[in-house]
Amino acid sequence: MSIRAIDEAPLNAFHRKLTWACAGGPFLDGYLLSIIGVSLIGMSNELHLTTADESLIGAAALVGIFIGGLCFGAVTDRLGREAMYTIDLAVLVGGSVLSVFATETWQFVILRFILGVAIGADYPIATSLLAEWVPNKHRGRLLGVLILAWYIGAAAAYAVGFVLAEIGGSGTWRWMIASSAVLSALILLMRIGTPESPLWLVNKGRTEDAQKAIERALDRTVPTKELLAASATEQSLQQHGFRDLCRGRYLRRTLFCGLFYMCQITPMFALYTFGPTILGSFGLGDGNDSNLGSALISIVFVLGCLPALRLVDRIGRRPVIVWSFALMVLPLLVLGGGSSLPLAVVVLCFCAYALFSGGPTVLEWTYPNELFPTSIRATAGGVATSISRVGAAAGTYLLPISLSTLGIGVTMLIGAGITLLGWLVSVLWAEETRGRTLAETSALPATQPTASAGERRAKLREDEYEGS
């Protein structure tokens, strides 16, 4: 059972505002992770940081994202999307402000860890809220927009870092960090007043609150009978918990979401790191110009996502992810030729990979939100994020070791192998969810209630409502 007022609603100002507000979390992720790398130069000079200090500061946020995604998705399913939606942004604002005044390594490490936890928590919070508010036919595209925000945030950080460094040199590093506090505060203001997810409210039996939320956001009156029927269906389904992600069909879906995410992001982080070396050949790899080059890399990946945004709702999720992984393998195999390749071929392969990677990229948060029911939707999204960060951390840590010991050619072939694993996982486990309601995409055959059972529950609830 679904809520037709949401599933069939035309896109309006509320949907656009909600999409931008939800995209603020990934934007801040890209910005915060990138701005610290830009500011570390000035920070190290002024605070006399060692290499170990810099590594701790850089890794703290990644560890925090892992913890935040793993833990706070479940909290969101328990307490609601609306409350967590603003709390985690308030933490980002506070942590960013305190970072401006930090003077010791341990202070930066703790604050970066806290910021990482808030970012990791925001992924399942914001994506589940958006998924439960947008119409079926636009869900894939709008959820895909969120991942674009990450690259835009990273590009913005490098651009801001470039401008500030040009104006005041590396001594402007505190201003760079302060910029993240300002952006976090602006996005927090955008989020204030967002109504709770009607599906979450219905799942908790709060049909009157769901009715008010829909009227407020969409200016549409939902018949009480429809909400009671939706609530009855939700209540007739088993209310799942964290352990259900490790059982039966949901285990397969958990592994699929986590593994394809990890297989997509691990080689991508490697190429993201290798990118400045490529651009260095064009004079954009030294000094402050490297920040401009890194911004250009982010823009290339943004451009790669644009075709996929249209295709996921036009031809479907499964063909997009399967064909994208298959095509992503090809440029990595060519790059396996190593440093002897002509520069033009290297740049062409880099651009081809960025273009083809758009498919899995825009589905990183679509699949977890579509394949799991309301009671564990945010939990599943958090777990998928945490699994992916294992790959991201491993790729970031092992890349320089692999480059120095195995060479660039073998390193790229390893990336091709990881990508091929992502293709295999997608061929075996990717499901088609295009154009279907969240109730349909998340239901399992063994747990779907019979029509008569759902109708009996709905009738009982309706009778109780009319008799009260």
Automatic annotation (TrEMBL):
<feature type="region of interest" description="Disordered">
    <location>
        <begin position="440"/>
        <end position="468"/>
    </location>
</feature>
<feature type="transmembrane region" description="Helical">
    <location>
        <begin position="171"/>
        <end position="190"/>
    </location>
</feature>
<feature type="transmembrane region" description="Helical">
    <location>
        <begin position="109"/>
        <end position="130"/>
    </location>
</feature>
<feature type="transmembrane region" description="Helical">
    <location>
        <begin position="324"/>
        <end position="356"/>
    </location>
</feature>
<feature type="transmembrane region" description="Helical">
    <location>
        <begin position="20"/>
        <end position="43"/>
    </location>
</feature>
<feature type="transmembrane region" description="Helical">
    <location>
        <begin position="292"/>
        <end position="312"/>
    </location>
</feature>
<dbReference type="InterPro" id="IPR005829">
    <property type="entry name" value="Sugar_transporter_CS"/>
</dbReference>
<dbReference type="InterPro" id="IPR020846">
    <property type="entry name" value="MFS_dom"/>
</dbReference>
<dbReference type="InterPro" id="IPR050360">
    <property type="entry name" value="MFS_Sugar_Transporters"/>
</dbReference>
<dbReference type="InterPro" id="IPR036259">
    <property type="entry name" value="MFS_trans_sf"/>
</dbReference>
<comment type="similarity">
    <text>Belongs to the major facilitator superfamily. Sugar transporter (TC 2.A.1.1) family.</text>
</comment>
<dbReference type="Pfam" id="PF00083">
    <property type="entry name" value="Sugar_tr"/>
</dbReference>
<feature type="domain" description="Major facilitator superfamily (MFS) profile">
    <location>
        <begin position="18"/>
        <end position="434"/>
    </location>
</feature>
<feature type="transmembrane region" description="Helical">
    <location>
        <begin position="55"/>
        <end position="76"/>
    </location>
</feature>
<keyword id="KW-0472">Membrane</keyword>
<feature type="transmembrane region" description="Helical">
    <location>
        <begin position="250"/>
        <end position="272"/>
    </location>
</feature>
<feature type="transmembrane region" description="Helical">
    <location>
        <begin position="83"/>
        <end position="103"/>
    </location>
</feature>
<keyword id="KW-0812">Transmembrane</keyword>
<protein>
    <submittedName>
        <fullName>MFS transporter</fullName>
    </submittedName>
</protein>
<feature type="transmembrane region" description="Helical">
    <location>
        <begin position="142"/>
        <end position="165"/>
    </location>
</feature>
<dbReference type="InterPro" id="IPR005828">
    <property type="entry name" value="MFS_sugar_transport-like"/>
</dbReference>
<keyword id="KW-1133">Transmembrane helix</keyword>
<feature type="transmembrane region" description="Helical">
    <location>
        <begin position="406"/>
        <end position="430"/>
    </location>
</feature>
